[in-house]
Amino acid sequence: MTSEHQVFSEAQLHAWIDDQLDPKQANEIEEWLQQQPELVQELRDYREYNEGLRMLCNPVLQEPVPERLKAVVEPAQTGPRRKSWFSFSQAASLFLAIAIGLIAGWISHGQYASSQSIAQASTTRLVQDAFAYHVVYTPEVLHPVEVTASEQQHLTQWLSKRLKTRVIAPPLQQQGFKLLGGRLLESGNQPAAQFMYENEQGQRLTLFTRHRFDAEQETAFHYASDGNINGFYWVDDQLSFVIVSEIPRAEISKVSHAVYQALNN
Amino acid sequence: MSLSAGNFNRLLTEQIPSLRRYARGLIHHPEKADDLVQDCLERALSRRQLWDSNRPLRPWLFTILHNLYANAARHFHNTPEIVSIDPLHETAATDSFSEVALQELNTALHRLSEQHREILLLVGLEQMSYQETAEILNLPPGTVMSRLARARKHLRELMQDPTLPNLRRVK
Q: What is the pLDDT of residues A76-109, one digit of tens each?
């Protein structure tokens, strides 16, 4: 765009293209341009590209803003997930249920509990922890996860190291869920990992896992629910898993099978 | 700065459509573009105290978005569908641009480097001043001008390249 006879600087010409000149300067340039036919076409093209970019992208302005973006700024005014549907009374009842389960287990088996019941108790504990952590972290707007999915490799390496077993975050795009990230937690005095996923509707799903306890037997899928929260759990040869979400049982079942497949490939 | 959280949130909400437009220009994939906007909003909220409320919010937000994009560009770059020519969001063909030409512009835009795409979108689409653009990209004003000039030249080359029949202008 530069030529030997140029009387206007390149910066001025760009400012003309971008309508950043006052009318007087713009007129001067336009007059001068009449003697510069080779330059005129180039500058006109640039102006057209500006217009083209606006035509290309302006329709986005008319789109409704997705709920998940509104929810970041106005957490209180959005859909059920962001709303604190999780009341303290619900929390209390959940923790009460955990306490009753543990006490009942302790009373019925006493100190002579068989390894079978220890296994049951630890699996029960795992499921209860998975539900509790789901309830605690999924409503989080700013910090749902400790390490985000953008650092997925670091995330799984870190958690694998802490759990002393290879842990992966299975891809669930086909089931409509995108990985948000994960965090390190605790269950039964053992490090545990929580991966969090989210679908287009902003519903979240967590996959909770820790190393299998020696006493735990490998199991098939089991279903658990607490109010509107559904879960599936199973015990693998290395790890025990719980998947928790508010999505319907049939859907969470599909996701669980997909996770199982991904982990056993 | 003593701007209440509610007021800040209201100003932030007003900027969401324009942040989404810019992100969609940068990243062809709508979900990923919104991911970037979401990260930007979250970071803006967590750094609210760092914003000088005597200054306009928009360039501050675009600076955050630029930094996030620059850090994550590799991640977005790995995604092959960025350059695919999907059916565009609804666009109205006008005198100067046919629907086909817009598709070509879109393709050409996504063949540019991230740096060139960013500067063309900030200036051409978002109509930021050169000074604002310099601040957002953290560049000296002279570099803004030279980068803008190179980005435009490269875009024009792509639009006119006869070896790429899909990129020929149809008018």
A: 544 443 333 344 444 444 544 444 444 444 444 4
Listed in sequence order, the residues at least 6 apart from A44 whose beta carbon sits closer than 8 Å to its beta carbon are none
State whether B37 and A1 contact (CB < 8 Å). Answer: no
Tokens of B143: 């570099």
The pTM of the full predicted model, rounded to 2 decimals, is 0.53
Report the CATH number of the B1-84 domain: 1.10.1740.10
Task: Answer with the residue of higher pLDDT: B49 or A264.
Answer: B49
pLDDT the model gives residue A1: 60
Q: Determine, for residues A46 and B156 on separate chains, whether the beta-carbon distance falls below 8 Å.
A: yes
Q: A58 in contact with B at a CB cutoff of 8 Å?
A: yes
CATH class of B85-171: mainly alpha
Residue with tokens 């006109």: A44
A70 inside 8 A of chain B by CB: yes
For residue A180, CA distances in Å to A148, A151, A154, A207 come to: 6, 10, 14, 12
**Is there a single domain that holds both residue A45 and residue A81?**
no
Contact assignment for A49 to B89 by CB distance below 8 Å: no
* Total tally of structural domains belonging to chain A: 2
Domain boundaries, position A31: 10-61
Distance in Å, alpha carbon of B65 to nearest chain A alpha carbon: 14
